[in-house]
Every structure is written in C-alpha cells, then in structure tokens.
C-alpha cells in the first residue's frame, strides 16, 4: 500500500479555530538501548507557506534524504528545537518521564528563541500526552495517532530530532568504537548486543534496559 505524503490539513484546522502557531512534536530513540531519547519540536504558522518537497516521517526517509531535508526544514519553520534526556536519566526516571523531560527542554529552547509557546497548540504524535505531566504549567497539547505520517509539523519535528540524535550517535561511535552506533544508532541490533557481551556496558547504555538481553 502506497504511503501518502503529510499535509497541513490538521494545522489549518487549528489556524481556522484561532491558533496562530502549531508546534509539531515527535520523539526519536524511545526503544534504543544506548544513547538519549530525543524530542523534536517544529513551530509552524500559516505564513510559513509550502513545506519542503519530499517531507515525510523520518522513519520513511533514508539517512541521506533526512540530512538533505534538515537545513530546508530549519529555514521553513519559524523555530525548531530538539531536547534530550540521557541514558542515565532514562535508567533513573523511566522512559515516559524522560520523554516529557526531553520535550520540556525542547520547549525551553523554543522559548529562548522567541517562540510564543504558551499560546500555541502542540500537536503530539501518538495517543498519550507524556508532556504536560512534567510541566509546571499545562499547555494545549493535542495527541494524534500517526501524526508523524500525516501532519507536516510533526513530520518536520521527527526529521529534526532524528538527524540531531543520529549525528550524536555517529560522533559517539568514534569515541567508543566497537558497538556499531554509526549504523545501529544505539538500537539493539545483533551486532550491538554481541559487542556489549564482548566489550561490556558503557555509561552511554541504558543499563536497566539490558537486563532482558543478558
């Protein structure tokens, strides 16, 4: 079955209801056994115009295409940010809390850039609002299943987060070679798990997640 490209139908519904800004939100790295979880956010408005050609959910794009799109998306969105929570925080606080923590950090970055976060609607991929529970003041968060596939703001956020996190994992692979992070990006591939058994666990690993692989 062919996959349709994302569009701005949902965003325009928010504009029509009086919202000036939509913040697309998506996470990357939730299921990895090494590295941070990252949350990307992309602020769009009706004035942004047409989105870059070829935009899709990051999972549907090659690494080369994501890297080509990322600077175009930075120019297209009003503001973009990626927040992260590291492996130690995931072990200590749990993945759901860390999604919210990474999202909070992305929002803080947007705010420091001048984004009007408080009056925006945040369009979050999925069916669970993991963001508001970690915020001191609740925001207007709307969840939508497959928003990363269907909505341009969320697809943009997914690409920003994926490129940012992948770049970190590639850089870390040069610092701690042998785990294949430049290829597996911290996910539990056979190569990665074999390397853990041979080389041991690093501070970059989510230690609590590795129990099931022991």
Return the average pLDDT rounded to an integer.
95
Strand tally: 5
Strand order of the largest sheet: 3-2-1-4-5
- The CATH topology name reads Nucleotidyltransferase, domain 5
Write a structural description.
The protein has 214 residues and is of the alpha/beta class. The protein has a single domain (9-165), classed as Ribonuclease H-like superfamily/Ribonuclease H (Nucleotidyltransferase, domain 5, 2-Layer Sandwich), CATH 3.30.420. It is built from eight helices and five strands; from the N terminus they run H-E-E-H-E-H-H-E-E-H-H-H-H. It has helices spanning 9-16, 63-76, 87-93, 95-113, 147-150, 152-175, 181-184, 190-199, and strands spanning 22-28, 37-44, 79-85, 121-125, 140-144. Strands 3-2-1-4-5 form a five-stranded mixed sheet. It is globular, with a radius of gyration of 17 Å.
Short description:
The protein has 8 helices and 5 strands, in the order H-E-E-H-E-H-H-E-E-H-H-H-H.
Question: Which characteristics define this entry?
Answer:
alpha/beta; Nucleotidyltransferase, domain 5; 5-stranded mixed beta sheet; 5 strands; 42% helix; RNase_HII; hydrolase; cytoplasm; Ribonuclease
